[in-house]
Amino acid sequence: MGNSIQDPLDRFVEQFGITAKQEGLPRIAGRLMGWFVVHGGPASLSELAETLNVSRASISTNARLLEQLGVLERVAMPGERQDFYRYAENPYSRLLETHVERLQTRLDHLTQLVPHLEQTSPDAVPRVEAMRRFYDQAISSNEELIDEFERMAESMPAANEDSRDD
């Protein structure tokens, strides 16, 4: 990263970090994601720590988190012993799939609750049913969006195509 927050790329990375924190992710994870959106990679943990002015341990922890979320991919570089990461091809479907999994868990909990409500709290039934419909529709809409992103990814050339030949 450059030396000035006035640089548009540096500002973007910082803003991505702030937004990630607001969404419940670590700020460093957001900064990493922002950096990879712009630069793609591959980059070593040491390079990222120096560039983002963050400890290597924090970079490693957050890179693994983003790898689990499907945003980053770990890659091997010939002759190198340290880990390198790059921005994953079409991480958007994976991000949405993770979101759908969380929505489905909430929907499952609501579905398990319904039989018990009628005896214990009948006035809650319409609220729970409304929430169930909300989650059901949110899941359906996100699944359609996942399908759309996957179709788009199939029709576009790979962004990391030249570095994938290694």
Report a brief summary of the structure.
The chain has 166 residues and is mostly helical. It has two domains: 8-87, Winged helix-like DNA-binding domain superfamily/Winged helix DNA-binding domain (Arc Repressor Mutant, subunit A, Orthogonal Bundle), CATH 1.10.10; 91-157. It has helices at 8-22, 27-39, 45-52, 56-68, 91-120, 125-155, and strands spanning 43-44, 72-75, 84-87.
Please characterize this protein's 3D structure.
With 166 residues, the chain is mostly helical. It is 66% helix and 6% strand. The protein contains 6 helices and 3 strands. Strands 1-3-2 form a 3-stranded antiparallel sheet. Helix 5 packs antiparallel against helix 6. It is elongated and about 65 Å long. This is MarR family transcriptional regulator. It comes from Abyssibacter profundi.
